[in-house]
């Protein structure tokens, strides 16, 4: 394995030097188009000149909402890896985040548009209840609830490891979404998102960006 990549053992995580390795691979790909199959070619890489610079937070990873019951074709890959089920005291998780920092953790995914935040007054039609598999529902799930205790615990980990967060908000709160058709009606109700953002800002949690995307 190249020196630019680390190794993984049970006691310690050594994170790849992604930027250096990525730059080398990018330059190699640029030159690759000039090669003729089976032709001997010498490749020289000028590492003394910077051709582009990215922000320290350019590197990003996503924590998704899928529960353990999410399966495809008989395969259920998520197990305890979802945001609500992740073991936040796992030392390998902490070491991995700290090793990648500074970088951005995106908290989001398809089910972000079902998640209700347990803060402030909620709509009677949008209770804060756990995800329940429902094949006839939008995205095959109903419910979805982020308790503030869980949000507090997540942010303790984020702050301890020095990462920033990009959080995907529920863009369908208060809207009709009871069928499997990827269509919704009625206006968005921003109250739950506003209360959640206020809660987050009051505690100075490291949310770098808020995502509100009508991609469904």
Automatic annotation (TrEMBL):
In terms of domain of life, where is this protein from? Eukaryota
Mind telling me which SUPFAM superfamilies this protein's record contains?
(Trans)glycosidases (SSF51445)
Matching InterPro entries: GH, Glyco_hydro_79
Enumerate the PANTHER family for this protein.
Answer: HEPARANASE-LIKE PROTEIN 3, HEPARANASE-RELATED
Question: Which family does this protein fall into?
Answer: Belongs to the glycosyl hydrolase 79 family.
Protein name per UniProt: Uncharacterized protein
What is the taxonomic lineage of the source species? Eukaryota, Viridiplantae, Streptophyta, Embryophyta, Marchantiophyta
């Amino acid at each position: 394995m190249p020196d630019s990549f680390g190794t993984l053992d049970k006691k310690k995580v050594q994170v790849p030097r992604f930027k250096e390795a990525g730059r080398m691979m990018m330059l190699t790909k640029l030159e690759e188009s000039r090669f003729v199959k089976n032709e001997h070619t010498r490749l020289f890489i000028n590492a003394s000149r910077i051709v582009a610079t990215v922000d320290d937070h350019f590197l990003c990873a996503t924590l998704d909402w899928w529960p353990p019951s999410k399966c495809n074709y008989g395969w259920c890959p998520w197990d305890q890896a979802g945001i609500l089920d992740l073991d936040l005291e796992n030392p390998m998780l902490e070491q991995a985040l700290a090793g990648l920092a500074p970088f951005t953790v995106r908290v989001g995914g398809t089910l972000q548009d079902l998640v209700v935040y347990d803060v402030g007054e909620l709509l009677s039609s949008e209770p804060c209840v756990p995800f329940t598999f429902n094949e006839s529902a939008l995205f095959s799930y109903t419910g979805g609830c982020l308790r503030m205790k869980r949000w507090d615990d997540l942010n303790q980990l984020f702050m301890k490891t020095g990462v920033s967060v990009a959080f995907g908000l529920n863009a369908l709160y208060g809207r009709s979404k009871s069928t499997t058709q990827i269509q919704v009606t009625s206006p968005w109700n921003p109250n739950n998102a506003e209360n959640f953002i206020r809660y987050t800002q009051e505690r100075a949690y490291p949310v770098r960006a808020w995502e509100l995307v009508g991609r469904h």
